[in-house]
Amino acid sequence: MKRVLFSLLAFSILFLSSHAWSAGPVGYAGTDTCLGCHQDRATFMSKSPHWKKAVPGAPINQEGCESCHGPGAAHAEAGGGKGVGGLVTFSKKERADVKSAACLNCHEHSTQLVNWDSGTHKTMDVSCSDCHTLHSPPKAPAGYGTTLAGLGYSPSREYQVCGKCHLDVKARLSRRSHHPIVEGRITCSSCHQPHGSTYPAMIKAPSINQLCYKCHAEKRGPFMWEHPPVDENCATCHAPHGSVHQWLLTEKVPNLCQACHDTTTHPGTMYSKQSLFTGKAPAVQSVGRACLNCHSNVHGSNAPANPANEFNRGSYFLR
Amino acid sequence: MKKGFAVAFVMVLVSVSASYAEQADMFSGGFFLGGRALSLDHQSGKFNEYNAIGPGLFGGGDARYDNDRYYLNAEATYLGDGDMYVKLKGGKWDSFKYSLFYTEFPHNYSFENKSVFINPGSENQALPSSRAALNNVNTWPSQSFDEKISRKEVGGAVEVTAIRPFFFNVDASRLQRSGQNAFGAVDAFGGTASAGSAGSFTSRLTDIAQPVDDHTTNTNALFGWKNKQYYAAFGGGFSEYGNSAEFTRFQEPFFPPTGASPTTAAVGTIVGPPDNRSWNLKFAGNAKLPYSSVFSLTADYQQNTSHTTLLNSIETGTQATPVIAPLQLSSPAFNGNVQYWHFGATLTSSPMKDLTTKFYFKYLDRKDNSDVITFANSAGTAAPITNSLYSFQKTSVGGEATYRFMKNLKGVLGYDYTDTKREDLPITSIVFNNIPDTWDQKYIAQLVYNPLDWLGARLKYQRLYRNSHFEPGTNPEPEASTPANTTLANNIRRFDAGDKVQDMVKFTTDITPTDALGIALEYAYKLDNFNRNTLGFQQMEENEFILDANYVFKGMKLFAFFDYDMSHTSQTQRQGAGGNGDPSTPPSPTGFNWNADMRNQNYAYGLGTSFPVMSKLALIVQYDFEKNNGWANFTSQSFTAAQTGLGINNGNIDNPYWDGYTRQNISARLVFDYNQHLAFSLGCLYTQFRTNDGQYAGYQYAYPFSTNGSSYLSGAYLDQSYKANVYYLRAMYRF
Question: Would you give the DSSP letter of residue B699?
Fold first, then answer.
């Protein structure tokens, strides 16, 4: 009798465990079940790193679709449908931290994400899926600022992704003077670290100037004659995303320069319509490039200074 | 040569890829070849500011290989003369990746500028032998120059993660720039710099085509260790900048128009950026702590150095008798040395459910340890001049608390205190007005609300109080050490280092009622009140409205974008102190206050659609428009007869053309998908840019000076307006 009971118990354990093995973990429906209805979502995914068996932590080596979307058995058993079964669907209504957690489960080890917790994007409820699409290829550049796309000049998709939230920046990138982002030469991430940074405005350097010097090394100096606002913060005079004024300036020259410089000589002069070529008292400080006509080395100079002559001094950024 | 290289690269991509085409799962790619025709009303640097759109062929290709372990993406495109790129990216999934690139593109500023020199753009620019003809632009040497810079960059990077928990990144690049800049050099012989009189032109100026020939080499490496709880990385970088055209010499062209030319042409020198080096070390680390806390620490050190052998003589004297005078220098060379220290620490925690806090400390120190050079003239007739060294320290502490009130409602409160100490140390006994130290207190409140699956909104308010500590000086500049200038200097506040109160509001909403329709709306307001500035900026205000919408319906896509941005800056200055720089004193004919109101009304919109015309044929049409109406209103405090004669009074000094411009692009293209591999594209683009700026109206190249001599301008940026039509046909094949 004991043998019979023991055999029945062993058989039951074997039967139940084998049944559980074939169905996968409790609550999971399995990828094949998902694809039964959502085959269209797999086409692009199947070519991505997420579906590479050689990548140890890839979803295909775990629970497949349910690695990111959560257990789907309830969803499948209910016959599917939007909002059915408590899946993580990465919709706008879902909490950003819940959506991001699905990604961070695996990508937490990424060195790109070490400052995610300190970054502004996390604070502002931006989730990974707001920027990254996994089930479809990146969309071709389209929309405002992309008229050159047919000619082969196309902004990166990145600029358009960032522009979804940063509308004011997107508008400035097409202003008269701008960095070549809409032309596809640089991207937002050339300067910013969207995954979080301990630096201001999530830039990729401790200060704005140190960031700008990476591409504009000729402005790095150090110069003998320094212009303090230039050395402290390029953004005092320049609007890096774009400006209606030339050279990305925050205000038109000469007014921008005059905001800091006023003496009894020309810096305090009212350069109005009358000081232009067509005015009654044209002034070289007003026409064309205005102050920059003469103060060409405004970013700094190593030219000598003649104490007996003020007109060709490096100290005034004239040479 | 480069074009050939690009074509060869594409051919290699195509042939290699085609030979493996049967392995369709692993190989994909394509290539395109096109031709362009261009109709341009005149050469304009603005038309091709960052491009090289011209008549001729363009093309490119890409190939992608991807097996279960390795991937390789190669891409090459030739877009025009001096405009191409080759990129290669590859690696082993989750193990390592590498990239190589070569890019080349122009940065065009201004085309067909004129020059009084026979060899503009060279390092020794000479006047024609017949210098008497220089006062007429039509008799200038026929050489013109384009202000443009060609950029060629090559580089690569490797990232290794296979040695997890360790990782290693290294990158290197070299940028080569060549071209020329327009550089204005003021007359070295004493052209007056005071306000003009009727019909005159103040100061004499020569535009010179300054050669640009430099390179920048950057290398960086980062080695680190990361597990689930800790992260630590050490890195460093080295950057070297070399300038092959640091000194540009030119013959001074000034001479009395009716008299004899100077017996000796004085040679002036422009000094360009010095060779410099920069190296840096950094550490970054973080640790996960209890209460879902993360503590992050960063430390950076950077040292920038430069070296210039200083010129020990300088042109001076008079127009009739120019002299190259020796200078007495305290050192024959200048060695620049600036160090940056940066520390940052951040603690992010979730001490209780739905509450997240962040506290941070940041410190940035820029210390200038450069050489101090004193310049004295041999005759000892003027006080020596010494450079000053600018250093500053910026310390920030702050925090923010984020609380989730409901599932879809989140609030953020933040505070930031930033203390900036500035040192502009004059080494001589001359006392400058020190740039003030400032203390910023910033308060931030934000709401993030996503009440519905199709509706989200963000609201942000920020107030900044900036207080400054201004120390009145006694002698603002050695040459201008008059009581009036001292009073002026003590009344002006540099706008970024003066007291101000700033308010910022931004509201953004995203509406996606259906998967096919997306709408984003934004309103932003910003007000800077420089409430303690007697002279300088008084107020800056900006209002902006933005709409961005997309709609997809049965294969048809529509988009619309609208941006309306109004900005206003008001400014108060004092012209000629008239012996009294105090702005509160009554005006005199030679000393009076004036105000300027600068307004910019910028609006931009874009409309576009793409839709199937018939089977396999789609039409894409797009229109972008932008217009900036800029004007300035100048108001003088004085109405003296002499100034009224110059038009300086309240009635007629407004300027309606102050950085006004209009830009519009219309593009249309037909895309015909012959089959799943082959497609053709036929398109046209009309693009127009028109400036409306008083600074360039009535432009004169050789402008007579009030007493003698002329200014010799180049016409730089006179070429900005353009109209262009581009037609193109492109064939694309994908496999």
Answer: -
Taking Cα atoms as reference points, which of B121, B147, B145 lies closest to residue B48? B147
Most confident of A37-46, A147-156, B685-694, B698-707: B685-694
Tell me which residue in A167, A222, A268 faces B522 most closely, judged by beta carbons. Answer: A167
Query: Which pLDDT does position B319 carry in this prediction?
Result: 65
| pLDDT beyond 70 at B12 | no
- Check A221 against B685: CB less than 8 A apart: no
**B488 to chain A: nearest residue by CA?**
A263
The residues, ordered by sequence, that sit 6+ positions from B223 with a Cβ below 8 Å of its Cβ are B166, B167, B168, B169, B233, B234, B235
**Section B287-291 average pLDDT:** 91
Interchain pair A232, B387: CB under 8 A: no
Coil, strand or helix at B642: helix
- Which pLDDT tens digit goes with each residue over B665-699? 999 999 999 999 999 999 999 999 999 999 999 99
Q: Which of A154, A243, A244, A248 to mutate against chain B (most B CBs within 10 Å)?
A: A244
Q: Which residue is closest to A252 within chain B, CA to CA?
A: B659
Give the ipTM: 0.93
Within 8 A of B375 by CB-CB distance, chain A residues are 304-307
Task: Judge: B697–A284 Cβ closer than 8 Å, yes or no.
Answer: no
Q: What is the domain range of residue B238?
A: 94-200+211-266+294-327
Distance in angstroms (rounded) separating the CA atoms of residues A119 and A123: 7
Mutate to test the interface with A, among B149, B470, B622 (most CBs of A within 10 A): B622
Residues B69, A54: C-beta atoms closer than 8 Å: yes
Contacts of B300 in chain A (CB under 8 A): 206
The residue in chain A having the minimum alpha-carbon distance to the alpha carbon of residue B445 is A124
Position A116 pLDDT exceeds 50: yes
Decide if B482 is inside a domain: no
Three-state SS string over A151-193 comes to HCCCCCHHHHHHHHHCHHHHHHCCCCECCCCCCCCCCHHHCEC
Separation in Å, CA B302 to CA A205, A213, A220, B689: 11, 12, 12, 42
Residue B339 in any domain: the answer is no
Question: Average per-residue pLDDT in chain B?
Answer: 88
Terminal-residue alpha carbon distance, chain A: 108
Does any domain span residue B711?
A: no
Question: Rounded to a whole number, what is the distance in Å from the CA of B105 to chain A's nearest CA?
Answer: 8
Residues in chain A: 319
Chain A contacts of B187, Cβ < 8 Å? 311
Instruction: Look at residue A14 and tell me whether its pLDDT is greater than 70.
Output: no
Question: Are the C-beta atoms of A78 and A59 separated by less than 8 Å?
Answer: no
Q: Which of B314, B511, B539 to mutate to test the interface with A (most CBs of A within 10 A)?
A: B314
Q: Which chain B residue has its CA at the smallest distance from A225's CA?
A: B387
Domain assignment present for residue B377? The answer is no
Chains A–B, number of C-beta pairs less than 8 Å apart:
523
Say if residues B426 and B482 touch (Cβ distance below 8 Å).
Answer: no
Domain count, chain B: 1
In tens, the pLDDT along B189-241 reads 665 444 444 455 667 889 999 999 999 999 999 999 998 899 999 999 999 99
